[in-house]
Structures are given as C-alpha cells and as structure tokens.
Amino acid sequence: MNLEDTKRIVIKIGSSLLFHEDSSKLNEKWLSSLAEDIRYLNENHKEVIIVTSGAIALGAKDLDLDSNEMKLDINQAISSVGQIHLMSSYKNAFEKNEIKIAQILLTLDDTEQRRRSINARRTIDTLLKMGIIPIVNENDTIATSEIKYGDNDRLASRVAQITSSDCLILLSNINGLYSSDPKNNDKIKLISEITEINEEIEKMVGDSVSELGKGGMKTKISAAKTAMAAGCHMAITNGTINNPIKALFKKRPCTWFKPSRTPLASRKQWIVGTMKPIGTVIIDEGALIALKKGSSLLPAGIIRVSGEFLRGDVVSVLSQENEKIGLGLAGYSSNDTNKIMGHKSNEIAEILNYSFREEFIHKDDLVLI
C-alpha cells in the first residue's frame, strides 16, 4: 500500500518496542524517531491514531515489581502508576516535534456498545480535526478479566474499525507473517500480501509471544480479520529500527492484509446488515433532493418523528409520501429531534443547551435504499 492511498492511519506500538532489548529502560531514542515519523505523516496530510502498550511495564519498573508474576488487581493498580510515566514520555518526545497529544483510555465495552463507540469515535474525530494525535491504551485500571482485550493488537483493530481508518500498522519485532514459525524452521518465506484469511493462513501462525508483550501472531491474525472486515488495510512489520513508519512506506519487508471493500462501504454494510431501525423520520422534498446528491440529513429537513430512539440508534428515513429513502444512525434522540426538527443547525445549541453536531444523520452514517 502506498502512503498516498491512506487518509487515516492507526499505529499500534507494543511494549517490547518501547524498551531497550537488554533492560526495562524506556527506549527514548526510538520514541523520538517515531515522533519524527508522525510529523512526516502529518506533513503528508495523514491523520494518525496511536494505540500503545507499556503502562504496566513502566509501572512495574517504577515500583520494582515483576509484572509477569502479578494478578489482575495488582496489574490494574500498577498500570495507573505506569500510565503517568508513559504519557509523559510520549509528551516529551512529541513536543520536540511540535506535536500535541491526547490520552484516551478504552475498554472492550467502549467499542462493543454502539453508543459508547460512537462517543469514542466523535472524540477521536474532533481531536484529529484540531491537529492533536490521540494516544489510545486499554483502560487497565477498570478492565476485568471478563472484558479485557488481553493484547493491544485486537484493541488497535477495533479502534481502526470504529474510526473508519483505512490503514492499520502493527509494529512488531518480526517482519510479518512467515510460511511457518521462524524459530522452528529455517526454510521459510515471508508472505508479502494476503487477501483472505483461510485455513492455510491459520496453519502458518505460530504461538510465539514476546517477553514484554502479551500478543503473539495469533492475536495479529485476529486483528487482521477485524480490520479487513472493516475495509481497513493492515500491515505487520518490524518496528525495532528507528523511524519504522518511514521505512514501511519505503518498502521495508512486511505483510499486508488487503480488504475487498473500503472502510465507508464496510460501515454502510454494517448499518444495513446488522441492525434494525428503531424509529422513523419523515423528510421534506428539499432534504430528499439533498440526500440524493450525497449530502447529510440536517434537522431543518425533518418534518415528523415517529418512535422512541436514542443517539446512535438506527432510524428509517421516509419521504412525505411514506417512501423508504434509507437508513442511518441518529445524531440526536427522538425527544431532542422533536425539538430541533425544522430548525437550522446553528439554532441547535440554543434550543437544546448543547450541540452534538450539525447533522441529524451524517452522510457517512446514511445508506440510501
């Protein structure tokens, strides 16, 4: 995949990359080189989201504990200590490259529950519009064994999914997926491109796990399935060198997983195929014409609301003749929509005492029938 083909990139950084190989000391030189890569992507008009590990490892180092031998509750406690050091390290490295960062902590529920995932997406969208790099980590301090991802490969793929990213890069300590486990077989080859994860690909996956990280190749393949289903290209590449992102786009060896659809097409397929409409909105002729031209649905174009729904629920869009126009994700609850329908978008804040967004249904969340 060429850099020119990407718009929004998620980069996952494992614990093993953040630390020197022979110690638990943070590799500040490598982190600075990553910041240089992010500036390079920004200069090429790319939006970047980072998913990082390292909080537990840094917390354990600060408290002189062995994170590999601790129970969940202890890990939760020390992650809160390590998170401060982790964000401070990112802040120092990125500020030198004139990049502002923001911290976002997520659990599995935050991406699985539709309304919470929409909130997370909107926050990330807003940060990116402001030119701020969101740095995401699993919220170890409140996650339990039942809802923990257990690795940040899958977390990264879920972040890529909910943000409609078109590229996910897993920086690892290996070049990509090989035909067999490199530790057990000298006669192997790197698989450079995968368009389908079938039984043959599954057999190639080994059980290796790095010393500091929790995820092996199995979790990366699981992440690839999620990413590809969301229309997102995914790369597994060796991130141990300095400036690993520049190296990737300069054709460093890697494995690319290529989906058959775009993120937008996959998102709209998800809307149509997985959820039933809860409510209905009737729109006027002007709104109907605008939708057919590819615009979003604004409150001004709504003339009637039917049913009870919350923000993030799927609603049907009908014409004044009760013809079904499409399906979409509601930007406001039915109660609030009744108040703002027929009004201009710049009047929403005055009517509701808040304004979530200008559109009732954004065009990316709308599927026309």
What are the SSEs and their pairings?
Blueprint: E1 8-13, H1 15-18, H2 28-43, E2 47-52, H3 55-63, H4 72-95, E3 100-106, H5 108-112, H6 114-129, E4 132-138, H7 152-162, E5 167-172, E6 193-194, H8 199-204, H9 217-229, E7 233-238, H10 244-249, E8 254-257, H11 263-274, E9 279-283, H12 285-292, E10 302-306, E11 314-318, E12 324-329, H13 334-340, H14 348-352, E13 366-368
Parallel strand pairs: 1-2, 1-5, 2-4, 3-4, 5-7, 6-8, 9-11
Antiparallel strand pairs: 7-8, 9-10, 11-12, 12-13
Helix pairs in contact: 2-4, 3-4, 7-9
How would you sum up this structure, described in words?
The chain has 369 residues and is an alpha/beta fold. The protein has 2 domains: 3-263, Carbamate kinase (3-Layer(aba) Sandwich); 275-368, Archaeosine Trna-guanine Transglycosylase, Chain: A, domain 4 (Roll), CATH 2.30.130.10. Helix content is 38%, strand content 18%. The protein contains 14 helices and 13 strands. The strands form 2 sheets. It has an 8-stranded mixed β-sheet, with helices on both faces. Strands 10-9-11-12-13 form a 5-stranded mixed β-sheet, with helices on both faces. A hairpin with a 5-residue loop joins strand 11 (314-318) and strand 12 (324-329). Helix 7 (152-162) packs parallel to helix 9 (217-229). The chain starts with 7 loop residues before the first strand and ends with a strand. Residues 207-214 have low confidence and may be disordered.
